[in-house]
Amino acid sequence: MEYALSDQTTTILEHLFDGLPDVPQPIYAKLKQAISHKISVGEWQTNQRVPSEAEIVNFLGVSRMTVNRALRELTAEGLLIRHQGLGTFVAEKKAHSALFEVHNIAEEIAARGHQHVSKLLTLESARASVEEAMMLGVRTNHGIFRSVVLHYENDIPIQIEERIVNASRAPDYDKQDFSQHTSYEYLMTTAPMTEGEHLVEAILPSETECERLQIAANEPCLQIKRRTWAGEDIITAARLVHPGSRFQLFGHFGRG
Amino acid sequence: MEYALSDQTTTILEHLFDGLPDVPQPIYAKLKQAISHKISVGEWQTNQRVPSEAEIVNFLGVSRMTVNRALRELTAEGLLIRHQGLGTFVAEKKAHSALFEVHNIAEEIAARGHQHVSKLLTLESARASVEEAMMLGVRTNHGIFRSVVLHYENDIPIQIEERIVNASRAPDYDKQDFSQHTSYEYLMTTAPMTEGEHLVEAILPSETECERLQIAANEPCLQIKRRTWAGEDIITAARLVHPGSRFQLFGHFGRG
DNA sequence: ACAATAAACCTGTATAGACAATTAAAACTA
DNA sequence: TAGTTTTAATTGTCTATACAGGTTTATTGT
In angstroms, how far is D16 C1' from A64 CA? Predict the structure, then answer.
């Protein structure tokens, strides 16, 4: 049951728990966190081989089933890939699939090799209505910003972005130059998003929206409502409207 | 280590594996599937108490760790809720029915506490056309199945499911009783999905689709095209059409 | 030199047993 | 009766062991 640890393995495992808070937690959870940390800081590179269960067992002096649970759950979460007979490896992608990474329309369009232009239609400082307060999880009359931006891909309208922003977490939102960077880029630097939710629907756009998107009145649109958190606070709530004929959401799940 | 089984428990567990295909599979996976099935068909109601680990152990004659794994994973998937000292219960609904977990419409509807009924419109064995062969990554004239199923939530049409299936990976697809279980359930047991991709669009439905969904001609619909892999093979390609007024996709990302 | 076989690892699953932590109910006490 | 303690049930975690199945490498035989 004893395996010799190679120098390399010892090096890899040596500072496994460095920089992690020592809170009371099950062993398997600590191990998950430690490995997850190694991957997220880039210390363990993509496709790199992770020490085998036996090696971790001998290094930590815990049971194999405990190590197995940690590795198995990290695999289910998409951080690792395991091959019977071969070993465990750092997975290619992050846990989030592409569908959830469609945040920055400018980046998306650039990635397609197209030209992105955005036009700021309205931007105002205001106080939250009852509905807005609910969306942002703040009290009525809490300070907010409202903005409406129209995004173009190669001079064709591709997205209407209606957004309200929690002013206490992004106080300079109204001083931004949205022709230089998108609201998403500013918010990510000011209050890095930790969580979010989406609601995707097919809708018929309003008359105003049809004009802005330059589409027929009966053309279906994809509407995405998105709220993003930083810690406990909701930072922003957005409503994005895309012409159905010009836009698709793509997502991928599983390994690879 | 022996516990007496109450009459009620025996009744609950009696037909645990009824109606499930007997494919070679680990014990914990079979148990997961059986419990998932009980919940999806409404036999085990929301908030109802699930037999304890000890009861299942005595009934099935397997190890507690095996039962524990099944229940733990189902809890992670949001189907069950567990309370230490109390027991295991059928979860209210999928708290965060992630966008990528919306696979089994029957489960989704059951999770909302509603009634699911599906109607098989067409089911045929055929040979792949050029387009179909491309979708499934097989040669033209490769054996496939085509099916069209209409799903109802509380007697209201909620989804048209057009599907083609790789016959060499799911040879008994056309022998299934789709009133007993969904195509998704059969395919998951026959060729467990390892990867998949989605394409979400807003479309105007065809005349036939309007009739089937009982909606107006100009009502926008959410169309989801999905392909799922098992290993290297594409198992199935589906096109799902939902009325925009009756359906939303919800997604959540980040920790939590 | 080449092919077949064996050995060494590695992950996947299953088992039996142990103790901790939590909760509700039962028993006990003032 | 009211409050306290004990007990039983249940889930949560951990260990040690075992065997199956897959993959690579080393060994053996011809």
Answer: 9
Residues in chain A within 8 Å Cβ distance of B219: 204
Please state the separation of Cα A200 from the chain's center in Å.
Answer: 16
> Contact A197/A168 with Cβ under 8 angstroms?
no
Give the nearest partner residue to A196 out of B196, B244, B254, using CB atoms.
B254
Q: Does residue A52 lie within 7 Å of nucleic acid chain C, judged by its CB?
A: yes
Distance from CA of A236 to the nearest CA of B (A): 15
B231 lies within 8 A of chain A by CB: no
Report whether B219 contacts B243 (CB < 8 A).
Answer: yes
Contact A207, A131 (CB under 8 A): no
Strand bridging mode B195-203 / A249-254 = antiparallel
Model pLDDT for residues B96-134, shown as the tens digit of each residue: 334 455 567 887 787 677 888 999 999 999 999 999 999
pLDDT value, residue A187: 79
What number is the average pLDDT over the span A166-180? 84
Enumerate domains of chain B plus CATH numbers: 7-90 (1.10.10.10), 99-243 (3.40.1410.10)
Cα of B238 to nearest chain A Cα, Å: 14
Query: Closest Cα partner for B51 from B78, B26, B76, B70?
Result: B70
